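Board notes (copied after class):
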Amino acid sequence: MLRKIVFVGLALGSMLAHAAVDEVALKAMEQPTPATVQGVGNATSFVTNITGAAEWNRPFADGTCCSGLGPVRYTVQVFTLSANDTCDINSVQDGFDGYIFIYQNAFDPLNQTANFVAGDDDGNGGIGTSDIMGLPLQANTNYFFVSTAFENGEEGEMTNTITCPTATVSLSSTAGIAQAVPANNPWTLALLAAMAALAGAFALVKRHR
């Protein structure tokens, strides 16, 4: 009986060891991917800054969930294409280790695997760059470019570029995107306290009517 318990314990330990993903070690195994867009193409760039932004527990580059290195800061940019095309998605981070993701139709930071299309940690330029090469995209479809960090504490400015051979890329408003609340945000805490005070005052007035 004791031998059986020890065996089960060892088996569970082995399963847990395999379940824990060493993302730092995986960085050394990433292979550069050549660009698919020949020539300049139609390149659309935008700059975003994730410093002090909302936080989420990001997935891995393959869309499975979730990394144990978070929560991490993130921003979202919606874009569409004028025609079906295969595009290169690139990012350059200003002095920190970033990560990028593409979602289709909708993005929910609390449901990280839903509508996932692609993701990348380190690009051809190494740490501080991210590349998703040769990504097939559809016309007149909302795509969500998520700019985020590799691990907690990493934040800063990111310059992102979407390059397509023929299609024109249009950037649109991020209004209506579900946003996670930044952890320990003083404004959030103050708002919650004010709402609680108003609710208490309303209940007191109602009781004395």
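Comment from the instructor: Strands lie at 42-49, 55-56, 72-81, 85-93, 98-104, 116-120, 129-137, 143-149, 157-164, 169-172. The mean pLDDT is 80.
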